[in-house]
Amino acid sequence: MKAIFPGSKRYQVFEVNAKDKVSLEVLAKLQNERSDVYDFWTEPRIANRPMDIMVPPAFTANFVELMQTSDIDYKVKIADVERMMEAKRKAKPVIHGESGTRSGAPRVSLNWESYFDLPVIEEFLAELATKHPNLMTTSVVGQSYEGNNMNLVKISTGGSGKKAIFIDGGFHAREWISPSFVTWVIRELVENYATHPQYADNIDWWNSKIGLLQMYRYKIMPVVNPDGYRYTFAVNGDRLWRKNRRPIVGSDCIGTDLNRNFDFHWDEGGSSDWPCAPIYNCGTAFSEIESRVVRDTILGIANQTVVYLTFHSYGQYWLTPWAYTTNLPSNYDQLYNLAVRAVDKLTAVNGTQYTIGSPTNVLYLHSGLSADWAMGVAGIPYAYIIEMRDTGKHAFELPPDQIIPNNLEMWEAIKVIAEDVIAMAV
């Protein structure tokens, strides 16, 4: 792992707990003023909920003193971030090997028992599209700053006037579980379509004799931030990198938080004007080619899209707009009720608990998010930000043996969303 702030090792992650509003404001001020030093893995939100902050060794004494003088509970959660990551990589290396589908048919590229870099994901997409050309197509809708492809998957059997679900992952490079789940969705919809008879049952109930995917179509972007994602896998990269990789003019720092770069109530809190900050908004909305590609792709199908799902980690939250205000959208009751039903199915698999609500009310205020823009500008009626496993024990280093359990439970939630879309299409 390359240190986030070059030249130092033995970064530590502290779990802190603000007891009241005053101590919470101390942490919020620390993030706003020293985001070039402290990496808030979970951001200042509400009192009496733990949050994780990565601290460089040169600032450990200052950080501990601030916690003590501010009467904020703290403890070391990860004593040596680099050592932890190296140990995990040695225990479960990233491999490229042959895998199998549930039906037993052999397939290379992905097995969801390890995390995979972008070229392997692209191989998987091409392979699946070749095997199922009547169901899945892939296209390159743009290129990132460093020239990596931004891939779009379309799953449909053709026709017009259909409802659409738009899914994306990989906004934040270090959130490896996100592309791992989004690729799982693609596999389930295409290769394992025949294993989901309940969909056919539901469609029959609507007196439809056509397949599930003829009722609506999916548009899926597995990795929105390909440059950052590849950097987290690189030998000389940074496993905990969050942003994209475009250098900032006039600064030695690199990268913009793509999920603070969308032009809907942009820069109204919860982002930073400091170029080194993990939540840097870059000074103007849609400054980044990657966020513009997402924008243009969604706008091209916005009139038929009824659901936008963007997958992140970590925390186990199922979030609705709005993120920039405590106010709720006019259709919040419908958003909430659908989320409850989806999370109920998710929890039934492994008992995993998710918190449902709007970001500002259950977490913290932040602005310039893709989900807020998808609802507020693109006009998509159902938009969700889903923060997957876990609640902080492993954070961004979710062990590979949790990929499949995470994906299985989350797939049950996605099926609830899909069934509602089928109902909307009738």
Automatic annotation (TrEMBL):
This one is known as: Peptidase M14 domain-containing protein
User: Which keywords label this protein?
Assistant: Carboxypeptidase, Disulfide bond, Hydrolase, Metal-binding, Metalloprotease, Protease, Signal, Zinc
Q: What is the lineage of its organism?
A: Eukaryota, Metazoa, Ecdysozoa, Arthropoda, Crustacea
Q: Which organism is it from?
A: Daphnia magna
Q: Where is the Peptidase M14 domain?
A: 114-421
Q: Which cofactor does it need?
A: Zn(2+)
Query: tRNA processing as a keyword?
Result: no
**According to its UniProt record, which protein family does this protein belong to?**
Belongs to the peptidase M14 family.
What superkingdom heads the lineage?
Eukaryota
The active site is formed by E387
PROSITE patterns xref list: CARBOXYPEPT_ZN_1, PEPTIDASE_M14
Gene3D superfamilies given for it? Metallocarboxypeptidase-like, Zn peptidases
Which Pfam families does the record associate with it? Peptidase_M14, Propep_M14
